[in-house]
Write a structure and sequence with these properties.
The structure holds three protein chains of three kinds. Chain A is α/β, with parallel strands linked by helices. Helices cover about 35% and strands about 15% of the residues of chain A. In chain A, about 65% of the residues are buried. By secondary structure, chain B is mainly α. Chain B has a domain of about 35 residues: Histone, subunit A, CATH 1.10.20.60. Chain B has three helices and two strands; from the N terminus they run αααββ. Chain B is flat and about 55 Å long. Chain C starts with a strand and ends with a helix. Classes of the chains: A alpha/beta, B mainly alpha, C alpha+beta. Strand 2 of chain B pairs antiparallel with strand 9 of chain C.
């Protein structure tokens, strides 16, 4: 019997009535993971997950829909006592001695950590193929990528192994793989969720977010993740809110903007047509849709390259073989320790990015590139702000194509950046953005739509997403849907 | 415009990043780094922005922490993940030149 | 040897007196077991983030105020990127673009009593590195110091001699230890100075090649190091040789500077704004309340003490003893003889405090009792001899001074007619001594004094008695 396929309320009822126990869900999850065989995980938390499940039997089931449910954690979020690798050789033996703030919240809510998911090394990439542990595969077609960098979290949700996963999004790393695998992925407003314990890639862009199979569960998980954290100065103090509160409301009167850039020739025809269908649905249901121009959108990738690689070159300097992580044996001298540890420890993409990042900050370059990028980013943010004076939400495709083949060449160093042209702007402006599956292409690979909200208006995003989800009634379980093998 | 970086340029950035490279890798990065850097040059085409910078992507200011002592690690925990240690200390190959910085 | 004009700039790092570190809440302490004062933030663990200690900002504001700096109200931090084992994240969080204080000065008094302003270019806040010790083939790292808050104070190149360097460092130490900013202990490393020295022929010439002297262990070595360096450079220039930019350190054993390393092309620190710490905005209220908390500084103390009639030598001693000076400052409104008060503080009370390793604030000597004590000394009810007998009780008991006097059976003759009576008797009983005195034998007066003391069992004030004795002998 598969319990994890049921509605979350039903699972909760079964738990509450003691018809099932958390351990049943844990065992089912491990069985699912084995069956779907997507290389979604770097480390499974088998023993500890079972212990926690057993412990939970001793306490009363709370009025908390998340109680006792398994969750998968992207492997760049530190978990005390549970190996955290960032999919890198340099951390492949690293056992953290503290918990990330989001992990504390998850444990407090009695969710059960099932394992650490696969990803691009240090979240650098868009196909999870830079993982030291091999790429995860797409449950819709195992020849295809599941996207990146949160590819393992996306594939395990898409395969219906578990209900919940955490991802992180620096330039699209939640939304893009969510789009490729047909799931719901939210990157909340920068500052919504504490970054304490998220191994930094680009500090001013990184944000943790929930990845789930549907909108409601996504909002439920976000509810417990948010909040000002004294350990993270960039986290923001906001009044508590229930992100599910607008779910089920109609969309009459909603004003929606579609940036022209998002519907330009960079996007494939299949995807554009799907988005156009959605626009029709929206208009039929009382929303207004306008095509608009937003300045600097086309510069987002460049800004992303400069800011992300610059910050990464500094953030990754701490991996030096001294205090933790991979370290060479018998170093000749300190430089030998640094150079060989880092050369052995980091993969190609990471080396490339931190070298470019070092160059971009070197000498006068910091002024020419990094500071300039910060200025333009500020202006871009203002452009979005202006747009949100007129519109409730912005929409567009999440990606320019659907998931491509795992075997496609990785030689082009620019390819991974171009996969993210449509998702980068949201990180630049610090806005919340969500991927919603809206259909399939000719090969029956999922197509995703991005819904972008004004700062801290995640609830409104969920309103629209839930409305469309209900209208479209897509079969999003790759185990059931007609597959094109 | 040249289509690749010089070997020296590649070595310079590899040195800043403390990464050693084989000859093969140098050849590869001469081309790849140049491709990325050319792409990054697009920033010079952006016009009409103002000079304000924003450090983190939102408008709140830093909140200050009260000066109160919190939990600390014991030396054993400090050494737990350290590959090389000696007594209560984390050890590295001898460094004689004194700190570069502060 | 030709004459050159030295141009000297000084960079001073001071550890701030806070309970916790700048970017984490582990303890800021010295002399504890290695690696016992750390947490994951100090160790630069993956995923950790900095927080910002409020007290550091406050001390920064105070230091900037004391150093007559302008205060920047909107500031951020920057990352200084360089690989070094004592630098846990391989970047140091500092303030490169927006130092909290800028354009200040410190005034020193030169040997010829002329005043000179030493101009401060800027002062910024940053974190300390960890401490390394070298054992055999290894360098051992102690992270207790990692993240201790520092301020770095950078002068303009406006200093022209080793003596001025010394005066500047002494002044800085005095000001900032009085301001409760830092312990300023060079021997414990809570104050560290680096000096840049260059020479040129004329004021109109561009500055010569800069040589940096690090690891200076004391203020006198700073002076000596600069003087030796000026000589060394002079010799090189006289020999028509060139100086390479370099870092030297002061070696205690050789009593001279020795080469540490020749500087290669400029360090590439890849500074950029620290994205983990948003803008820090200082409000006028915050700045004002910090200013109000700054204790009275030494120069103002000196001025007031002089006005109160305290002897120059005591003024200086008091200013050097912070807790006594603070104690005295609580008494400034009292109507007491400050000369007596200062003698009392620096004499018997200091002797007691030194012996017991206490501060005056830890004794029972309340303001009220101190005033009583001074008054008793003023009107000769107490003698200095009595004081020695009573001092422990005065500083350990809470009784009034009069009560202690009674317990000790101390009762002095303060009535001068009574003393005069005793003196007259002594004079008439000792005609030979009186004669000797009149013939210029000084010893005689001592003998007569002794007799009076014997007769009164020491219960008279010696000075008063001597005055009367001399009067009667006329």
């Amino acid at each position: 019997m598969k319990y994890l396929d049921k509605k979350i309320e039903e699972i909760h009822k079964l738990l509450k009535e003691k018809k099932i126990k958390p351990i049943d869900l844990v065992e089912e999850a491990f069985q699912n993971i084995e069956n779907s065989d997507c290389n979604s995980y770097i480390t499974l938390n088998k023993e500890e997950a079972r212990n926690v499940a057993k412990e939970l039997e001793k306490i009363e089931v709370e009025d908390n829909l998340l109680f006792g449910l398994p969750i998968a954690i992207k492997d760049n979020i530190v978990t005390k006592g549970l190996r955290t690798t960032c999919a890198s050789h340099i951390l492949d033996n690293f056992i953290p001695i503290y918990d990330a703030t989001v992990i504390e919240k998850i444990k407090k809510n009695h969710m059960i950590i099932i394992g650490k998911t696969n990803m691009d090394e240090f979240a650098m990439g868009s196909s999870s193929r830079t993982s030291y542990f091999g790429a995860p595969t797409n449950p819709w077609n195992k020849e295809k990528i599941s996207g990146g960098s949160s590819g393992g979290s996306a594939s395990t949700i898409s395969a219906r192994d578990v209900l919940f996963a955490l991802g992180s999004d620096t330039g699209g790393s939640i939304r893009q793989p969510a789009s490729y695998t047909g799931i719901v992925g939210m990157k909340p407003t920068y500052g919504r969720i504490s970054r304490y314990g998220l191994i930094a890639f680009a500090s001013s862009l990184d944000q943790i977010g929930p990845m789930t199979k549907n909108v409601y569960e996504n909002a439920l998980l976000l509810n417990i993740l948010v909040g000002k954290d004294e350990k993270d100065l960039t986290s923001v103090n906001r009044e508590e809110e229930d992100f599910t509160r607008f779910i089920g409301k109609n969309i009459k009167g909603l004003k929606i903007g579609v940036p022209n850039y998002f519907m330009s020739d960079i996007v494939s025809k299949d995807i554009k047509n799907k988005v156009k269908e959605i626009i029709k649905v929206l208009e039929e249901n009382g929303a207004t849709v306008d095509f608009i121009d937003i300045k600097y959108l086309e510069n987002a990738v460049t800004l992303y390259q400069i800011i992300a690689m610059g910050e990464a070159s500094s953030n990754l300097a701490r991996f030096d073989g001294i205090r933790y992580g991979h370290s060479i044996k018998d170093p000749k001298d300190i430089d030998d320790l640094y150079f060989r540890t880092r050369s052995e420890g980091f993969g190609e993409e990471v080396k490339r990015r931190i070298m470019v990042g070092s160059y971009l900050l070197s000498g006068e370059n910091a002024k020419i590139y990094y500071n300039k990028a910060l200025s333009i980013r500020d202006d871009m943010r203002k452009e979005f702000k202006n747009a949100f004076q007129k519109y409730d939400l912005l929409i567009g495709p999440t990606t320019t194509t659907t998931a491509y083949n795992l075997s496609d060449s990785m030689d082009d160093p620019l390819k991974s950046f171009l996969d993210d042209v449509l998702v980068n702007p949201v990180n630049m402006a610090g806005l919340p953005g969500l991927n919603l599956p809206i259909g399939f292409d000719k090969e029956h690979m999922p197509i995703g739509m991005q819904i972008i909200g004004n700062s801290f208006e995640e609830a409104k995003i969920y309103q629209l997403a839930a409305f469309l989800e209900k209208k479209l009634k897509l079969e999003l379980d790759p185990n059931r849907g007609e597959k094109n093998v | 415009m040249k289509d690749k970086l010089s070997k020296e340029e590649v070595y310079h950035v590899a040195n800043l990043a403390r990464i050693s490279l084989t000859d093969e890798e140098v050849k590869k990065y001469q081309i790849q780094l140049k491709q990325i850097l050319d792409d990054v040059e697009k920033i010079n085409n952006v016009k009409g922005y103002d000079d304000d910078i924003l450090i983190a992507c939102w408008e709140e200011n830093t909140s200050l922490r009260k000066d109160e002592i919190g939990e600390m690690l014991n030396p054993k925990e400090v050494l737990e993940n350290a590959p090389h240690h000696s007594g209560n200390y984390i050890a590295v190959p001898i460094v004689i030149n004194g700190g570069e910085g502060a | 040897m030709s004459n050159y004009i030295p141009t000297i700039g000084v960079e001073v790092h001071l550890e701030l007196k806070t309970k916790t570190k700048i970017f984490s809440n582990s303890m800021n302490g010295y002399g504890e077991m290695a690696n016992s004062l750390t947490n994951v933030v100090d160790l630069g663990y993956p995923g950790t983030l900095p927080t910002l200690n409020e007290e550091v900002i406050k001390l920064g504001i105070k230091a900037a105020t004391i150093l007559n700096c302008n205060i920047r109200k909107v500031m951020h931090f920057d990352r200084k990127n360089y690989f070094y084992p004592d630098n846990p994240k391989n970047y140091q969080i500092t303030q490169a673009r927006t130092p909290i204080g800028y354009d200040g000065y410190v005034e020193i008094t030169l040997e010829n009593q002329e005043k000179k302003k030493i101009y401060i270019e800027e002062m910024h806040i940053e974190e300390d590195t960890c401490k390394s010790a070298h054992r055999g083939e290894k360098t051992l790292l102690d992270f207790n110091r990692a993240g201790v808050p520092l301020i770095e104070i950078v002068t303009k190149p406006c200093i022209s001699s080793g003596e001025e360097v010394k005066l500047y460092l002494e002044k800085l130490r005095e000001l900032l230890s009085f301001g409760d900013i830092s312990d300023c202990k060079i021997e414990e490393g809570s104050m560290r100075a680096d000096v840049n020295v260059s020479l040129r022929k004329k004021e109109s010439d561009p500055l010569g090649t800069k040589v940096e002297i690090k690891n200076i262990g004391s203020i006198s070595n700073a002076k000596l190091g600069v003087e030796k360096e000026i000589k060394r450079q002079t010799k090189i220039y006289d020999n028509k040789e060139t100086i390479k930019p370099q870092t030297r350190r002061f070696d205690d054993k050789k009593n001279d500077t020795i080469l540490m390393r020749v500087k290669e092309t400029g360090n590439d620190y890849r500074y950029f704004p620290e994205p983990d710490i948003p803008f820090v905005v200082l409000t006028d209220e915050m700045i004002e309340s910090c200013r109000k908390e700054i204790p009275m500084l030494p120069d103002e103390r000196r001025q007031i003490y002089k006005e109160k009639g305290i002897l120059e030598i005591n003024v200086n001693k008091l200013v050097q003893n912070r807790s006594l000076s603070d104690y005295l400052n609580t008494l400034l409104e009292e109507k007491i003889d400050f000369k007596i008060a200062s003698n009392l503080l620096l004499g018997d009370i200091s002797a007691y405090l030194n012996k017991k390793e206490k501060t005056i604030q830890e004794t029972t000597l309340t303001k009220k009792r101190f005033v009583e004590l001074v008054h008793l000394l003023e009107n000769n009810t107490l003698t200095s001899k009595n004081l020695k007998e009573m001092i422990e009780d005065i500083l350990e008991k809470e009784d009034s001074i009069e009560k202690i006097m009674k317990e000790k059976n101390i009762e002095n003759i303060t009535d001068d007619t009574e003393i005069r009576k005793v003196i007259k008797t002594i004079i008439s009983n000792n005609p030979e001594s009186v004669e000797d005195y009149k013939n210029g034998h000084d010893r005689a007066i001592k003998y007569l004094m002794g007799q009076v003391m014997k007769e009164t069992k020491g219960k008279v004030n010696p000075k008063m008695t001597m005055d009367i004795l001399l009067e009667e002998l006329k």
